[in-house]
Amino acid sequence: MTDKATQAQQTLQQDSEGEASVLTPGQVADYLRANPEFFLSQNDLLADLRLPHDSGKAISLLERQVMILRERGHEARQKLGSLLENARDNDQLFDVTRNLVLSLLRARDATEVAEITQDQLSALGNVDACEIIVVAKPGLNVASGVRTENAEKLAAEFADVFRLRRTHCGAVPRASIEKLFGANSDKVGSTALCPIMHESEVIALLALGNQAEDYFNTSLDTLFLDFIGHVVGAILAKSE
């Protein structure tokens, strides 16, 4: 028996002996937890207990227990469903990441790096638009098919991505979505902006879009996207 339960039992004993003492709700709860068989010998009390219900009607203790167990079972099923969904998403992400890495190893130039990355990531069911924008810098030699943008402009517009150097999911102004995705911007309600890194420097920006406004949100796990950003960055740096 716990110290709290012992104290509660002593208080009960004091009451039965006529000594003045007031039990707190916590002491009663501790005592009942330590003595779950208490109501087995208190049939009359058990029959008299009634608990308020949202409907306004009082229900028995047993009915309340059944309701609580059902609620807990429902919560457990929801958590299990969420875990299974996350597992399926992670399996898909792993397959896409593996295929992307293997394909990038065969890329011959920056154009192929960009095309392969966009094709592979667009295969994800939750990606409705995908763009890569390479940070322009002196001496950069990329094909005309590769999008480039001034480093200062990108860093100013997507400050969190460049400052934190990790994927940013969350609200983005509509004007920025239109700049990122162009003709495909009407397919985008939420975005994930992944910095493509090489030696702690952001050398490109990977933008993913989903039609749902709340799909890419601040609570989304970005581990795979951050990894993809580093892999693409390492290969892109060699292809420039």
Summarize the structure.
The chain has helices spanning 3-16, 25-34, 43-48, 61-104, 110-122, 151-157, 159-164, 174-181, 223-239, and strands spanning 50-51, 59-60, 129-136, 147-150, 168-170, 190-198, 201-210. With 240 residues, it is α+β, with helices and mostly antiparallel strands.
Describe the structure.
It is a single chain. The protein is an alpha+beta fold and 240 residues long. The chain has two domains: 3-71, no CATH class; 80-239, Beta-Lactamase (2-Layer Sandwich), CATH 3.30.450. Helices cover 52% and strands 16% of the residues. It has nine helices and seven strands, in the order αααββααββααβαββα. It has helices at residues 3-16, 25-34, 43-48, 61-104, 110-122, 151-157, 159-164, 174-181, 223-239, and strands at 50-51, 59-60, 129-136, 147-150, 168-170, 190-198, 201-210. Strand 6 and strand 7 form a beta hairpin. It is elongated.
